[in-house]
Amino acid sequence: MVLLKTFQQLHYFPDLESVPPEIVDHIRTVMNLGPKAVAQYRQPKTLYRHCAAVRGYLSIHRYYGKEAQRIAVRAAYEAAEVMDQRVDVINATIEELIFRRYELPAFSTLDNIAEAAAATAQDRLYARIDEALTGERRAFLDSLLATDFAHRQSAFQAIKALPKRATRKHLEALLDQLAWLNTLGDVDDPLQHAPASKLRHLGKV
């Protein structure tokens, strides 16, 4: 019963020694069992048999073989296309496996899948942006990194400059910077297919 109830909450079988005693005591109370009833297995074969019985009762598939891996990888790659945080990709993968009635694998397995999916999605995003850049636009971007020795900073650093305290002088400077930014032209075209979450993440880099 401990295996059944913990699986219903966690969607995997925990080490029984890690189950809090309060949970075991509650199950004993509900089932009118005495303190001699413990959540232990002397024979591993009995544990395996009971795990199989729980899977059968709940109609759960073991995370085993190419099909389970394919479902997890596909879910992770689809999530990574629109999410930039690995934990969000992992959660999306977990939700898909639960929806497909699969037992969850070890966290390290989910983490490795999410890491690979995130890296691939990032490479694809960079490739799409790179393909959308014209030669003229590339030259313009390169020019933003050139240092203006008169001001001792590049145009890129000027773009990233944070607004100062709200005074009349600083407000005028901010309006001047806004007018200058408007002269840079349309910079959105190469990014039009990038998800907003990805752009927010890139903006923080």
Outline the secondary-structure elements:
Elements lengths: L1 H9 L10 H10 L13 H15 L6 H16 L5 H14 L7 H26 L2 H10 L2 E2 L4 E2 H6 L7 H15 L13 H9 L1
Antiparallel strand pairs: 1-2
Helix pairs in contact: 4-5, 4-6, 5-6
Protein name: Mobile element protein
Pfam families: DUF4158
InterPro entries: DUF4158
Q: Structural class given helices, strands, pairing?
A: mainly alpha
Indicate how many domains the architecture comprises: 3
Question: How many whole angstroms does the radius of gyration measure?
Answer: 28 Å
Terminal CA distance: 49 Å
- Count of helical stretches: 10
Structure description:
The protein is 63% helix and 2% strand. The protein is built from ten helices and two strands. It has a two-stranded antiparallel sheet with strand order 1-2. Strand 1 and strand 2 (153-154) form a beta hairpin. The protein is elongated. The two termini are 49 Å apart. The model has no long low-confidence stretch (mean pLDDT 85).
Which key phrases capture this entry?
single chain; 10 helices; Mobile element protein; 205 residues; 3 domains; mainly alpha
